[in-house]
From TrEMBL:
SMART domains: FtsA (SM00842). Self-interacts. Interacts with FtsZ. InterPro entries: ATPase_NBD, Cell_div_FtsA, FtsA/MreB, SHS2_FtsA. This is Cell division protein FtsA. Cell division protein that is involved in the assembly of the Z ring. May serve as a membrane anchor for the Z ring. Pfam families: FtsA, SHS2_FTSA. GO terms for biological process: cell division. It is a peripheral membrane protein. Keywords: Cell cycle, Cell division, Cell membrane, Membrane. HAMAP family: FtsA (MF_02033). The lineage of its organism: Bacteria, Bacillati, Bacillota, Clostridia, Eubacteriales. Coiled coil: none annotated. Gene3D superfamilies: 3.30.1490.110, 3.30.420.40. The keyword Protease does not apply.
Length: 416
C-alpha cells in the first residue's frame, strides 16, 4: 500500500503527470510533477496509440524517479471538448425501513438519471448532479442522512464518442498502466482555480491547448455548457513561422521566449534562426503584433461561442488555463479588453505546480481527494477495512455537486 495519488492529463502536445498525497494537516501536497512531449493526439483525439503510449510510459517513469515509487494505477482526465451534456431526472424510493437516505439511495438515483437513449456510437462517461429533491423539497446539495420517502435528482448526463474514449484508454493500457478512475476535465479545472461563489455567480473556463480551446460554463454552481474550438497555441506558432519564414520549431521557441502582450512599440532587435545556419534580425514589436493578432482572433471566437449559446450576459468573468495564451505576459488585461469581462489566469496554488499548464492534472488529484474524502490516516483505514469487509461498499464512487469522478474502478486497489 502507498499513500500517493497519481493523475495524468493527456493533451495534444504534452502528457502531464502529477503525484500528490495528503499530509498530516490534511492538506494536499504535490510531490512530483512532469511534462512529456506527445505527438499521438490531434485536437484531443488519439490518432497514434503507440506514440501516445510511449509518451505516457515516459511520463510515468519520470514520476517514479521523482517520488521513488512504482506506479501501476493512475487517475486520468477525460477531455471536455469531446463530451456532450444531456439533462435528465432520476427518481427512486428510499429503501431503508426508517426512511433515512443512505449512500446506496444516492447511487441508485444517479443510476436512474442515466436511463436515457444512448446512440450506438456514444457512451455515458459520467453524471453531474445539479440538485437533489426529497419529497418535493428541492435545492438539496447532500441528501445523505435526511429522512424522506422519495429521492429525486436533476442532473447532466455526460456522453462522449466511444471511439475517442476507448482509444485513450487503450493508450494507457498499452503503457502497462491501470486506470483507477476517470475525472471530467471541467470538474478538475473548476475546483482548482475558482471558488463556489464564483461558480454560483456564473463563470467560464477557457482551456487553451496547442490545437483546441475547450470552453466550460458554470452558472448557479452547475456545469451547464461545454464546447470546443479547433484553435490553439499552434495556430499562433504557425503564424509566426509563415510571417517570419522560419521553421515551426524555431517559431515555437520565439513565442515562448519573447511573447508579451503588454509591450507596445518595442523596437528592440532580436536575432532569429531562419534555418540553414542563416540568422537575421527582426523587431520584437513585429513578433508581438503577429502574436496579438491571432490571440485576438481566438478570444473573439470565444466571445462568439458565449453569445451563440446565450451565456455571455450570464457570466461575471472568465478564467484562462492551459498553455498557449495563458502563458503570455499581459494576457489577462488584453483578454479583458476584448471580452468585456474580468479575466484571470488560473494556476494551482501548490509549490512546484503553480503554472496554468498544470491546472488539469493537479485538479485531478484535488478532485479525487475531495470526492473520496481521503485523509492522512490511510493506515488506520486499511486496518478498519481488514476488520470489516462491508466498509468497501461505503467507498464506491461518489458523484456530487462539487466533486465528480466518473466510472471509478475498485477504489481499494489503491490500498492492497
Amino acid at each position: 500500500m502507498h499513500k500517493y495519488i497519481v493523475g495524468l492529463d493527456i493533451g495534444s502536445s504534452n502528457v502531464y503527470g502529477a503525484v500528490g498525497k495528503v499530509d498530516n494537516t490534511g492538506e494536499i501536497r504535490i510531490v512530483g510533477i512532469t511534462a512529456v512531449k506527445c505527438d499521438g493526439l490531434k485536437k484531443s483525439v488519439v490518432v497514434d496509440i503507440d506514440s501516445t503510449s510511449r509518451a505516457i510510459k515516459e511520463c510515468v517513469k519520470n514520476l517514479e524517479r521523482m517520488v521513488d515509487i512504482n506506479i501501476s494505477n493512475v487517475y486520468v482526465t477525460l477531455p471536455a471538448g469531446v463530451s456532450e451534456l444531456i439533462y435528465n431526472k432520476g427518481i427512486v424510493a428510499v429503501a431503508s425501513d426508517d426512511k433515512e437516505i443512505k449512500e446506496n439511495d444516492v447511487m441508485r438515483v444517479l443510476e436512474a438519471a442515466k436511463l436515457i437513449t444512448v446512440p450506438s456510437d456514444k457512451e455515458i462517461i459520467g453524471i453531474v448532479p445539479h440538485q437533489y429533491i426529497v419529497d418535493g423539497y428541492d435545492h438539496i446539495i447532500e441528501p445523505i442522512g435526511m429522512s424522506g420517502m422519495r429521492l429525486e435528482v436533476d442532473a447532466q448526463v455526460v456522453m462522449a464518442q466511444s471511439t475517442i474514449v476507448n482509444n485513450l484508454r487503450k493508450s494507457i493500457s498499452r503503457a502497462g498502466i491501470n486506470i483507477n478512475g476517470e475525472v471530467l476535465q471541467q470538474q478538475a479545472i473548476s475546483q482548482i482555480v475558482s471558488t463556489s461563489e464564483e461558480r454560483r455567480r456564473g463563470i467560464a473556463f477557457i482551456d487553451i491547448g496547442s490545437q483546441v480551446t475547450d470552453i466550460s460554463i458554470y452558472k448557479k454552481g452547475n456545469l451547464c455548457y461545454t464546447g470546443m474550438m479547433p484553435l490553439g497555441g499552434d495556430n499562433i506558432t504557425n503564424d509566426i513561422s509563415i510571417c517570419l519564414k522560419i521553421p515551426f520549431i524555431e517559431a515555437e521557441k520565439l513565442k515562448i521566449k519573447y511573447g508579451d502582450l503588454s509591450k507596445k512599440g518595442d523596437n528592440t532587435k532580436i536575432k532569429i534562426n531562419t534555418g540553414y545556419n542563416d540568422v537575421k534580425e527582426i523587431e520584437l514589436n513585429y513578433l508581438n503584433q503577429i502574436i496579438e493578432a491571432r490571440c485576438e482572433e481566438i478570444l473573439r471566437y470565444v466571445m462568439d461561442k458565449l453569445k451563440q449559446n446565450n451565456y455571455n450576459d450570464e457570466i461575471s468573468g472568465l478564467v484562462i488555463v492551459g498553455g498557449g495564451l495563458a502563458l503570455f505576459n499581459g494576457i489577462n488585461i488584453f483578454a479583458s479588453n476584448i471580452l468585456g469581462k474580468s479575466v484571470k489566469i488560473g494556476s494551482p496554488n501548490y509549490m512546484g505546480a503553480a503554472s496554468p499548464v498544470y491546472t488539469t492534472v493537479v485538479g485531478i488529484i484535488n478532485d479525487i481527494v475531495n470526492t473520496m474524502k481521503i485523509s492522512n490516516n490511510l493506515d488506520d483505514l486499511e486496518n478498519e477495512v481488514n476488520n470489516d469487509s462491508n466498509i468497501r461498499n461505503n467507498f464506491k464512487k461518489k458523484e456530487n455537486k462539487d466533486n465528480f469522478v466518473s466510472k471509478l474502478k475498485e477504489f481499494f486497489n489503491e490500498f492492497f
